[in-house]
Design goal:
Blueprint (H helix, E strand, L loop, with lengths): L13 H9 L5 E5 L5 E5 L2 E5 L12 H18 L5 H16 L4 H4 L3 H6 L10
Antiparallel strand pairs: 1-2, 2-3
């Protein structure tokens, strides 16, 4: 969506890309980075959330799972009158990591309680 080639999206450009969206009125920006995790930015801050170190069996559905987990956490938090983008992105990273540990899109999508229990080290490659 940023109009850049994949090789132009790197640690040096994440913040610039996020600001391009924020400057256009987008409230929350999340850039998914596959094996490197995700970068987020909004008016309250910005940070990189590293990926988890898991055995990858199939990446099918990882992006959809990330988006669904982040969106559902946003709605859950807003219903409580709060919003912490970092916790939503961390949760979405966990959900995506769980998805890629399985073959097939549907079988790998975790339930909310499974995300709550998920524990894995962060990938050194993404830090």
């Amino acid at each position: 969506m940023s109009g850049r080639d994949r090789d132009e999206v790197n640690q040096d450009s994440w913040l610039t890309i996020a600001h391009e969206f924020l400057d256009r009125g987008v409230k929350n920006v999340v850039i998914t980075l596959a094996a490197k995790g995700a970068f987020y930015a909004n008016a309250d801050g910005r940070a990189h959330c590293p990926a988890y170190d898991v055995v990858v069996k199939d990446t099918t559905g990882a992006g959809d799972t990330f988006t669904g987990a982040c969106s559902s956490d946003y709605l859950r938090q807003k219903a409580k009158g709060t919003w912490d983008i970092r916790s939503a992105v961390v949760r979405a990273n966990k959900a995506a990591a769980m998805t890629i540990m399985n073959v097939g899109a549907q079988d790998g999508i975790p339930w909310s309680d499974e995300i709550d229990r998920f524990d894995a080290p962060h990938s050194e490659a993404s830090i």
